[in-house]
């Protein structure tokens, strides 16, 4: 299974560099090719270039994970057009035109996973715009399931809750505790647990699962 994973954290040079290295390693492409192809996941021409590079190297894309995203706080009274556009450009525009670019390289029966968030179905103070971008992905998954069903292409969403990533390690302990408190299992998700959920949805074991949102949140939004 060939998986093209857009894992760029836009406008964060260190994270973007790590993402390019991971993409190059996983797709057996040179870092130079990946760096040249992707500058900004919100730009359709960049997504088209990386799709062309993968297609040239491997012939097709069997599974696609669209994971590029940013999260920045802004309460309603503090929201700005720039902040709004930045989040929607990366989180939503990037997914829309990333999938559009990849479709020509995807065979019938391929699968797509969008990485959403449980924030998309909750009211999270100061994260209304971020939550709205994730709710938009959930809506697109339903529409794309209907549109792409004639080709047998499945589209699903993985929606993590608080996840114990390297970025989360720098969060003050009091905030970490507040995030964990509503989780019945008493801890954050591990990145590998989120990845395993995405891999399941991409796999043949999920061949009749389409248009769903699979929450990986330890029950946080379920009970």
In terms of topology, how is this protein built?
Blueprint: E1 3-6, H1 13-27, H2 31-37, H3 44-58, E2 61-66, H4 81-103, E3 106-115, H5 128-148, E4 154-160, H6 173-180, H7 191-202, E5 213-216
Parallel strand pairs: 1-2, 2-3, 3-4, 4-5
Helix pairs in contact: 1-2, 2-3, 3-4, 4-5
What does this protein structure show overall?
- By secondary structure, this protein is α/β, with parallel strands linked by helices.
- It has one domain (3-216): 3-Layer(aba) Sandwich (Rossmann fold), CATH 3.40.50.
- The chain is 45% helix and 14% strand.
- It contains 7 helices and 5 strands; from the N terminus they run βαααβαβαβααβ.
- The protein has helices at 13-27, 31-37, 44-58, 81-103, 128-148, 173-180, 191-202, and strands at 3-6, 61-66, 106-115, 154-160, 213-216.
- Strands 1-2-3-4-5 form a 5-stranded parallel sheet, sandwiched between helices.
- Helix 5 (128-148) links the parallel strand 3 (106-115) and strand 4.
- The radius of gyration is 17 Å and the shape is globular.
Do you know the CATH architecture?
3-Layer(aba) Sandwich
Please state roughly what percent of the residues sit in beta strands, choosing from under 5%, 5-15%, 15-25%, 25-35%, 35-45% or over 45%.
5-15%
Widest sheet, order of strands: 1-2-3-4-5
Structural class determined from secondary elements: alpha/beta
């Amino acid at each position: 299974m060939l998986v093209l994973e857009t894992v760029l954290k836009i406008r964060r040079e260190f994270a973007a560099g790590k993402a390019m290295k991971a993409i190059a390693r996983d797709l057996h492409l040179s870092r130079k090719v990946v760096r040249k192809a992707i500058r900004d996941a919100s730009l359709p021409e960049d997504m088209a270039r990386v799709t062309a590079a993968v297609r040239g190297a491997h012939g097709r894309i069997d599974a696609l994970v669209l994971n590029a995203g940013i999260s920045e706080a802004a309460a309603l009274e503090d929201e700005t057009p720039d902040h709004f556009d930045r989040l929607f450009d990366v989180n939503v525009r990037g997914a829309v035109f990333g999938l559009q670019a990849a479709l020509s390289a995807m065979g019938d029966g391929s699968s797509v996973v969008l990485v959403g968030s449980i924030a998309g179905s909750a009211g999270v103070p100061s994260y209304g715009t971020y939550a709205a971008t994730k709710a938009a992905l959930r809506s697109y998954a339903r529409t794309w399931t209907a549109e792409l069903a004639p080709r047998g292409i499945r589209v699903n969403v993985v929606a993590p809750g608080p996840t114990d990533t390297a970025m989360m390690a720098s969060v003050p302990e009091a905030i970490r505790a507040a995030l964990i408190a509503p989780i019945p299992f008493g801890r954050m998700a591990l990145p590998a647990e989120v990845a395993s959920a995405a891999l399941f949805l991409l796999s043949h074991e999920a061949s009749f699962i389409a248009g769903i949102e699979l929450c990986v949140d330890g029950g946080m939004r379920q009970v």
